[in-house]
Every structure is written in C-alpha cells, then in structure tokens.
Design goal:
Blueprint: E1 2-9, E2 19-25, E3 34-39, E4 43-48, E5 58-61, E6 67-73, E7 82-87, E8 91-96, E9 99-105, E10 110-115, E11 125-129, E12 133-141, E13 149-153, E14 160-161, E15 199-206, E16 212-219, E17 224-229, E18 232-238, E19 243-249, E20 261-266, E21 270-275, E22 278-284, E23 289-296, E24 306-312, E25 314-321, E26 324-330, E27 335-343, E28 352-359, E29 364-370
Antiparallel strand pairs: 1-29, 2-3, 3-4, 4-5, 6-7, 7-8, 8-9, 10-11, 11-12, 12-13, 12-14, 15-16, 16-17, 17-18, 19-20, 20-21, 21-22, 23-24, 24-25, 25-26, 27-28, 28-29
Length: 374
C-alpha cells in the first residue's frame, strides 16, 4: 500500500489562525463536498474540496471562542445535513441552511459531540464537556417557526455524569463489566474532578444477548471505556493505560468476519482491540497515537476488513493491516485531525474513500490509499 496526495491546502497568513476541529461532508445539502474547520477565533470555515482558490471559501461566525467540535448530521429533517458545533466557552450551536438557529450554553467548555443514530427514536445529541459531564439533548421544532430548534435535556432537567472508577490504574485482566442497567447519577459534584470527556463515539455493538444495539462509547482521560445506552451506563471496560483515541471497524482476522471491533490507543503507545467486551493487544507504536480512523482495505475487498490509520505525536500517518504496518506517509507536522470520507473526484461517478489530515501547521491534505501494483 502507498499514499497518493490528491489535494493540499497551505493556510495563508490571511487565514492562518489555528483550527482545532475538522469535519468533511456536504453541509446543508450543498452540491459539493467541503472540509469544515473550526478556528481559534470562533469561525467555521467551509473549504470546497479540490478547490484551488481561498476566495471560494464560506465563513460562519459563531462567537469569539475556539470551535472545539464539529458534527455533520440531520437534526430535524432526515433529508437535510445540518451542522452542530461546540466551543470552549461552552456554547453548542445548531446550524441549518447556513444559519445559526439555536444556541445552548453549558457550564463548561465542550470537548466532544456525538449523536444517537438509532432511527427508531428521536434524535439525541450527546455532549461531553471539560467538567466531566455527559449530557443528552433532544432538539425539537418550535411550534411557531420552522427549523428553529429548542434543545431540551434528555429524560430530566439535569445532566448525567461519568461514574468514577476506584482509585488506582486498572490492570489488563481487570475487565470489570456492568450490565445491571444502573442509572448514572443525575448530578455529580465536579469540584475535585479533572477527568474531562475526551471522546464520544456512536456505535452499533451486540449486547449481552447478541442483539445489535446502539451505544455511545465514552472516554474521559482515564483507562476506562464506558458504554452508554441513552443515560444508562451498561458496561465499563478497563484498558491497560490511559485512553488517547478510539475508533470503530473490523481490524483483525480473529472472530466473525465483519464483526464490529473497537480500536483503542493508550498512553503506553500500544493499540488494543475491544471485541465482545474483552481487551486484547493489536500492535505497538513507538509514539503516542492521538488519532485513529478506519478505512476499507481496497487491496483485499473480499476479506471485509478495515485498515487502521494512526497519527499523533509524530510526523507521519501509519497504516496497519491487523498488526502489520503496511504503509507510512510522512507529514510536515503532527496530524491533529484525521478523518476518512467518501468523495467524488473529477470524472469518477462512484465515490471512494479518502484520508483527510489536518496538521498543526494549518496544512490540510487529502490522500488516496492505493495498491503498490497500481
């Protein structure tokens, strides 16, 4: 496997404020795909993919605080792609058709946003913040204005908070699991808490009976993976060290083909796989991996396996097939935003997967993974 650079954008001095967040897609059902970045001064910049001139960019000004999270997903109308953004002041913005239609202020800076993708229930936004709170919000249509939403807390008028594990680092064998359906307390004193929510991922995993169910995988700068079903913590899985990044895919040859697995990078520079609520080591990396992403293995499509992309505190992107390093791409700086997205390019009618990398030097690149025989 090798990387092929298909697009690169070096941020000019005119727009060189650092960006902390990145997302890719067709917001507001625009015809063309865009890279959306959230900047230090509270702007959302929409960059047309494969465009060559910055004059084609579109900007939405939110506040004067850094945009920390961006999520593209339908909020009210399932046929329209909306944008949800959070900033370091604690503002949550819902943007429809290019306009801010709702704002909800939290008590702490927002650090993570996800959405419940269960089509059988109303949309629920999950918001994690620097105070360690995980909050569920149901956006609802106003009765007198179309496309105006009113964020309401999930279930009750209070937040629900991550439950603290017992003191001390858990060992790899300490896979303490909770399936009792215990409700997380509605309120938790955060006076002495420093475990802010770092990631929230919406996934479909088999529950204890083997039935595919919707979960939110939550991490909070500790060695624990928390699995939530709405406001119920249904499992708490111990990892060998503090968790840095998480992604979902099918990475190993063990187990059922195509079965969902969770890749977890830890502070000990190892990558682990969670499958069937058990943790096993996949491979070791020489550096801290803070970004993980899954991409289809186009070289072996019949295997129904994903390649694992790793980036972090090193000037490269690594690609693993199982535990084997199969490709490496050197970058000009650390990659702090990493995504995989299906895009159309040129005369290609069928979208294919590309790797989008945002670097600390404000460079954004798009790569294609191709076979060595291509």
């Amino acid at each position: 496997m090798r990387f092929k650079t298909v697009w690169i954008r070096h941020r000019s001095h005119r727009s060189s404020l650092p960006f902390f967040s990145l997302s890719v897609g067709k917001p507001f059902n625009w015809n063309d795909s865009h890279i959306i970045i959230g900047t230090l001064d509270g702007q959302l910049r929409f960059i047309p993919i494969f465009a060559t001139e910055e004059e084609n960019e579109h900007t939405i000004c939110c506040q004067e605080s850094a945009i920390s999270c961006i999520l593209l997903h339908p909020v009210i109308n399932l046929q329209k792609i909306d944008l949800i953004a959070g900033d370091l002041t604690g503002n949550l913005f819902v943007i429809m058709n290019g306009q801010i239609v709702a704002r909800h202020l939290f008590n702490h800076p927002i650090t993570a946003i996800s959405i419940d993708r269960n089509i059988h229930t109303p949309t629920v936004l999950f918001v994690g913040d620097l105070g360690g709170y995980l909050t569920g919000i149901k956006p609802l249509l106003s009765q007198n204005k179309e496309y105006v939403v009113k964020p309401l807390p999930l279930c009750t008028s209070k937040n629900f908070s991550i439950e603290e594990p017992s003191p001390g680092q858990p060992s790899q064998s300490d896979n303490s699991q909770t399936y009792s359906g215990e409700h997380v307390p509605s309120y938790f004193d955060t006076a002495d808490r420093d475990l802010s929510i770092s990631t929230i991922h919406s996934v479909i995993l088999p529950d204890v009976s083997g039935t595919p169910s919707h979960f939110q995988i939550v991490t909070n700068h500790s060695a624990w993976l928390y699995l939530y079903n709405l406001n119920v913590c249904v499992a708490r899985i111990a990892c060998p060290d503090i968790i840095l990044a998480v992604c979902c895919g099918s990475f190993t040859t063990e187990g059922k083909v195509g079965s969902p697995q969770i890749a977890v990078s830890c502070k000990d520079s190892n990558i682990y796989i969670m499958e069937n609520y058990q943790i096993s080591k996949l491979t070791s990396v020489d550096f801290s991996v803070t970004q993980l992403a899954a991409i289809k293995d186009a070289e072996h499509p019949s295997l129904e396996r994903d390649l694992l992309l790793c980036a972090g505190h090193f000037n490269s992107i690594y690609v693993y097939r199982g535990s084997q390093l199969v490709a490496e791409k050197e970058t000009g700086d650390w990659v702090h935003c990493l995504q995989v997205c299906r895009l159309e390019q040129g005369k290609r009618q069928t979208p294919q997967e590309y790797v989008i990398a945002g670097q600390l030097d404000n460079t954004i690149q798009i790569f294609e993974l191709e076979s060595d025989e291509a």
